[in-house]
Amino acid sequence: MSLIVLGTASHVGKSITVAALCRALRNRGISVAPFKSQNMSLNSFVTGDGSEIGIAQAMQASAAGLEPVAEMNPILLKPKGDQVSQIVLLGRPYKDVQIRDYYAETDLLLERAVEAFDSLQTRYGHVVVEGAGGAAEVNLYDRDIANIRLARRLQLPIVLVADIERGGVFAQVYGTLALLPEDIRPLVAGVIVNKFRGDPTLFATGVTLLENLCGVPVLGVVPYADLHLPSEDSLSIADKRRKTDRSVRIAVIRLPRIANFTDFELLEQHASVEYVAPGAPLAGYDCIILPGTKNTVEDLALLKANGATPELARAREAGVPIIGICGGYQMLGTHIQDAGIESGTAGVYEGLGFLDVVTGFTDYRKTTVQVRRQASPCGPILSRMGVVQGYEIHMGETRRRSADEAFAGDGAVSPDGLIFGTYMHGLFQNVPAVNALLGYLHERRGEPFDPITGAVSDARGVGVDAPYDDLARHFEQHVNMDVIVSFFGDPDDRSGDDAMTREE
């Protein structure tokens, strides 16, 4: 047996709930794999075989003690702008489509998703399925392959997650249940009230009221927990709180199509990291990072139109390090030659001109690969990094001209080492890379720096000592796990144990 986790809305905590369940069930000896049929996110991860999936499913796989595989997120939508998204199907680029045309694909994509689910269930024994957005989007019922149509095909128990932090939890739960199709509503086996601030026992009367109103048991009230796990999508940026007690300030330019900003979440724990609008004043920052983007050409044009070029030039003159990751690296070059692959319009576009490199988008081909590279000995930052690991996800190829490599086989660096670009996502999830950058920035300020110790990160953007057991314990303290376990069949049935052991 398996289970579906749906939400009353986006950002209610479905991904974290699935991760908590995966680790809690694994700790009970139950082999389980995560699954999300359709994800829309620019935060993605590359598996060992070069497949691209949502970062949340990679994180959930880690919680389950498994290596991520494409079947865990068979359909990934990556918005490019102008109502166009790239469809990544079973880890590989499928096509770019207008959103209005995407729905013509849903019958085919649903079949692929069900096949992927069946494959995971056969291999691992049990699956925890995550829905997308809100479950009761009535205008989408005929094409909702992440919630309603999938639930109809799988016929599994459903746990509904609601977010009490923003208020309106009674309306969320009652309204969602009332709007679910009549054949889906009986599948809802319980409700989890998530993100409670304070003592959850204070909501005891609320639990009784919810159960009486809705006729569905409340399986738990989970308090808000500050855990360092990767963010699923751009909604999470609004929830970020910079550490005001840190002297080093790092600006990450918040591009409209920012991708894989999980790259900077370890930095966020040890510096004051701010996501700033294109063209915003950059004076006072100790470092500037141009992040990845799903559309380099259009985000570069917006960056320049909003006055970012003179701001970056002033930072360069002041000796402030400027770092480009993936699309940000492409922007740092002199030119971008697009055959219409990236922006839909062929042309040659002038870059920011900080690195002597040229990027070309000549065919519909994406590089997706895990990498391990030696940093260049050039300059005061890269020379301290040593060997780092990460992953590449990008269209286009970049050719160096006079610039030296930043890493063996990748990137470019200025002669003084203070400007560099790389295709490597996850660079600053490597502790040596974070220590190298923050150590230099503290030195430049004349301040001491205590290097980060005791944490080792891997390429999926989470530490191997990430707090999954803490997450599971927190969840078990507040959720009726006996009911959850009952959804997975006989507790003595541990089918899939061999598969779980092999993955570890």
From TrEMBL:
One Pfam family linked to the record: CbiA
Keyword Glycoprotein: no
Pathway(s) this gene product operates in, as recorded in its UniProt entry: Cofactor biosynthesis; adenosylcobalamin biosynthesis
Active site: C326, H425
Xref: InterPro entries: Class_I_gatase-like, CobQ/CobB/MinD/ParA_Nub-bd_dom, CobQ_GATase1, CobQ_N, CobQ_synth, GATase_3, P-loop_NTPase
SUPFAM superfamilies assigned to the protein according to its UniProt record, in alphabetical order: Class I glutamine amidotransferase-like (SSF52317), P-loop containing nucleoside triphosphate hydrolases (SSF52540)
PROSITE patterns for the chain: GATASE_COBBQ
CobB/CobQ-like glutamine amidotransferase domain mapped to chain residues: 249-430
Keyword Disulfide bond carried by entry: no
Chain ranges of the CobQ/CobB/MinD/ParA nucleotide binding domain: 4-226
Keywords from the UniProt entry: Cobalamin biosynthesis, Glutamine amidotransferase
Function text: Catalyzes amidations at positions B, D, E, and G on adenosylcobyrinic A,C-diamide. NH(2) groups are provided by glutamine, and one molecule of ATP is hydrogenolyzed for each amidation.
HAMAP family: CobQ
UniProt family annotation: Belongs to the CobB/CobQ family. CobQ subfamily.
Identification of the protein by name: Probable cobyric acid synthase
Species this chain originates from: Methanoculleus frigidifontis
Gene that this sequence comes from: cobQ
